[in-house]
Amino acid sequence: MAGYKPVAIQTYPILGEKITQDTLYWNNYKTPVQIKEFGAVSKVDFSPQPPYNYAVTASSRIHIYGRYSQEPIKTFSRFKDTAYCATFRQDGRLLVAGSEDGGVQLFDISGRAPLRQFEGHTKAVHTVDFTADKYHVVSGADDYTVKLWDIPNSKEILTFKEHSDYVRCGCASKLNPDLFITGSYDHTVKMFDARTSESVLCVEHGQPVESVLLFPSGGLLVSAGGRYVKVWDMLKGGQLLVSLKNHHKTVTCLCLSSSGQRLLSGSLDRKVKVYSTTSYKVVHSFDYAASILSLALAHEDETIVVGMTNGILSVKHRKSEAKKESLPRRRRPAYRTFIKGKNYMKQRPTCTIKTPEITVSIIKELNRRGVLANALAGRDEKEISHVLNFLIRNLSQPRFAPVLINAAEIIIDIYLPVIGQSPVVDKKFLVLQGLVEKEIDYQRELLETLGMMDMLFATMRRKEGTSVLEHTSDGFPENKKIES
Length: 484
Prior knowledge:
Oligomer: single chain
């Protein structure tokens, strides 16, 4: 051991998350309240008027929740089949919804039975909205049609048949009672004018359109479909301003903040992205447990509600910023002492990320000495998470695989009895399992490739061997000794 020199590992503090105004603003929500619905939550819509209740469409029911209630204060269940797209009128007194059987129903918030029923669509109605004058309803359905209905007379006024596939989203202008937008699975977004018999504008999104949103000014249109969120300038004939591709799966819903300065998008990749409407860069992101189908923000962004495919409704309320005036003001030295070290982060070696070969060498040396199991045992949740993160990052590298696979087996043997007690560690074990299975598949494909290459090389050598044979006069080959 005289020639042994320990590895010198220099330590650095871990860099913390960059704090911005958006980070402070969007992180200022309490722990989410989760409400279980009867089916996938396809639409969430806040009432524009106090007390800002919100309607949740799931399965064959529409539930009305108060902002701080965890039980519905009213339920509309007069649907024969699945209900869709419950939407409030601007005054918050009426609610309109579509259904799987092609009907459109209008409800009074203070009652239970539908006030009006509009029959005309032959397939499921997935989008409805009130026009700006409050006396008409626009609807789009899977029968490729868009219809305009008169509320007082319960009659159909106009029908547009320009789409060539399902109409799954739409919205009406809040300024002009004659304009409304629809998005379809035929990859187009169309603007219709009730004063004409055809669309006045059409833009090509390039993917089946899942959601559309019109800015309050009416000058900008946002469409979502596939992995793309696209912004169009309506004042310039539908010119594409920007195409955003920040999600990994289909974008299903869009929402604007109360100030109009931030655009939110929800996706099947279980993330909600927050964009600045000036730079269109992602300024914040929320993570959820399941794929997201619907998204809504309350007045002044005080509540954010997300509906997911597993029937869970996630409700986050903004923390109270009211200061307690009764507390005495602290002196400056005491305040400095209180905040001292608030940004301190535990130091640990960065070689696990920048120079993983050092860590692998240490693991190999511990294994050679027979003390690797002792070194890995007795770790708490945070420490074992660091070890699992290192294995997840480097297990698939061929130069580290022999050492790290052995370490992974030891960790599994040690901590198998406590699996199921920590969701964080369990999740990392599942990721590690997926990597190992993927590595096994790669090795299997590699062995098949090596087998094919061995066969090719053997065939080539056989052909080279026949080139030194000479044929006798009777036609049979005769070996000829080759002199070196």
